[in-house]
């Protein structure tokens, strides 16, 4: 989990997905926030998914990502952060 978050791009991606309206985002929603290609962003999202921080679902041409609440709780516990904003 920490290795996946060790990259500043992935840390920012996780934050963008978590704060996106509706709690989920596709590459098309967040690619404008980076000076990176869509395939590069997709790669970083895959690393976050493989680390258990994100889940995804394909809808037509796009893949939508959302944060795994239990992963955020585990991360908060390890870091000693209390949060009431992590959904159940």
UniProtKB/TrEMBL annotation:
The keyword Transcription regulation applies. CDD domains: HTH_ARSR. The keyword Iron does not apply. Pfam families: HTH_5. Residues 1-87 form the HTH arsR-type domain. Transmembrane segments: none annotated. Coiled coil: none annotated. GO terms for molecular function: DNA binding; DNA-binding transcription factor activity. Keywords: DNA-binding, Transcription, Transcription regulation. It comes from the Bacteria. PANTHER family: ARSENICAL RESISTANCE OPERON REPRESSOR, TRANSCRIPTIONAL REGULATOR, ARSR FAMILY. This is DNA-binding transcriptional ArsR family regulator. It comes from Rhodococcus rhodochrous J45. The lineage of its organism: Bacteria, Bacillati, Actinomycetota, Actinomycetes, Mycobacteriales.
């Amino acid at each position: 989990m920490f290795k996946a978050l060790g990259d500043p791009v992935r840390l920012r991606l996780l934050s963008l997905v978590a704060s996106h309206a509706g709690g989920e985002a596709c590459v098309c929603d967040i690619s404008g926030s980076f000076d990176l290609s869509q395939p590069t962003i997709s790669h970083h999202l895959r690393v976050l998914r493989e680390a258990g921080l994100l889940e995804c679902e394909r809808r037509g041409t796009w893949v939508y990502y959302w944060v795994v609440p239990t992963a955020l709780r585990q991360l908060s516990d390890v870091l000693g952060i209390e949060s009431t904003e992590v959904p159940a």
